[in-house]
Amino acid sequence: MTGIEISCLGYSYGAKRALDDLNLQVAPGQFCALLGPNGAGKSTLFSLLTRLFVAPEGRILLAGLDLARQPRAAMARLGVVFQQPTLDLDLTVRRNLLYFAALHGIAGRAAEARVTAALDRLGMAERAGEPVRALNGGHRRRMEIARALIHDPAVLLLDEPTVGLDAAARVAITDHVHDLAAQGLTVLWATHLTDEIRDTDRVAVLHRGRLLADSTAADLRGAQSLQTAFLRLTGDEP
Ligand SMILES: Nc1ncnc2c1ncn2[C@@H]1O[C@H](COP(=O)(O)OP(=O)(O)OP(=O)(O)O)[C@@H](O)[C@H]1O
């Protein structure tokens, strides 16, 4: 069973074709970077994967469940970290996570255990009693990821999760998410920053709604830097 299976996916905004015949499969435990310049279609794809938009063409399976036919079951297997933070700044870290657990129907001891496990996974246990307002940007992002894992999803989507973070926080977040993939989580990480991608990562390059490449970063870049390979591929060389 694949973590994410996208077949023949298409989407248009009126006459504007945003995604065209997209096919992508991400295996459990794989870290797949969805690399694309502005306007490539990354947000549109995420909107379809999270059911903000209903896919008019093609098919999406999450953890083997069809998003159109079994939307609730499929969505229950999905964790999402959106670009815009949505934490309650005045609640503590733990309270924020408990609230989110409750939204998933998880309460009492089970919720406490899930929150503790999620904070441990992201190295945030010692921050549990602090209000989110007191955390720096990097720790807030880690918390967003912990929150996305509360209901124990099989698939984690992250939409440019390092936007606005300093270099150290970006490294910490990318390391944490690679660790999660190594533990079996299927990860789709949308970015336009090539330095977040490791040679062993899978890279799907999206450009003008089409998949231009799909291979490991090492194969994609060959002897050049990933940045150069990416700019050559998308025709955006300086
Ligand atoms: N509501 C809309 N109406 C018309 N065109 C749209 C709309 N939303 C997006 N588009 C167009 O669809 C294409 C894909 O946009 P999308 O936002 O998915 O790209 P993206 O890869 O997420 O870009 P960015 O990195 O800038 O967020 C772009 O050409 C964009 O201009």
UniProtKB/TrEMBL annotation:
Q: One Pfam family from the UniProt entry? A: ABC_tran
Q: Does the keyword Transport apply?
A: yes
Q: Which PROSITE patterns match?
A: ABC_TRANSPORTER_2
Keyword set, alphabetical order: ATP-binding, Nodulation, Nucleotide-binding, Transport
Named from the GO MF annotations, one term is: ATP binding
> Which residue intervals define the domain ABC transporter in the entry?
4-233
Is this entry keyworded Hydrolase? no
What family does the database annotate?
Belongs to the ABC transporter superfamily.
Q: What is this protein called?
A: ABC transporter ATP-binding protein
Organism encoding this protein: Gemmobacter denitrificans
